[in-house]
Design goal:
Length: 69
């Protein structure tokens, strides 16, 4: 019986170590996914062409004040 109990204890220790690593990995990946989802939800869409970002006004030369497209 002493031999069997030693073998069982060794297996239990190894099994516990494996689950510990797997649990840490699972927690880490879940945390990473939550962070990524938060960043996705917080991003706002950019207004195309707002505040003159789409066209450029020429500032010098003959065509001063005209909009370049």
């Amino acid at each position: 019986m002493a031999i069997k109990s030693k073998n069982i204890k060794k297996k239990e220790k190894k099994k516990m170590r494996d689950t510990k690593v797997l649990e840490q990995f699972k927690k880490h990946t879940e945390k990473k996914l939550k962070e990524m989802n938060v960043f996705k939800l917080l991003k706002k869409e950019v207004n195309h062409g707002a505040n003159g970002t789409q066209n450029y006004v020429i500032k010098k030369g003959i065509n001063k004040g005209k909009i370049a497209k």
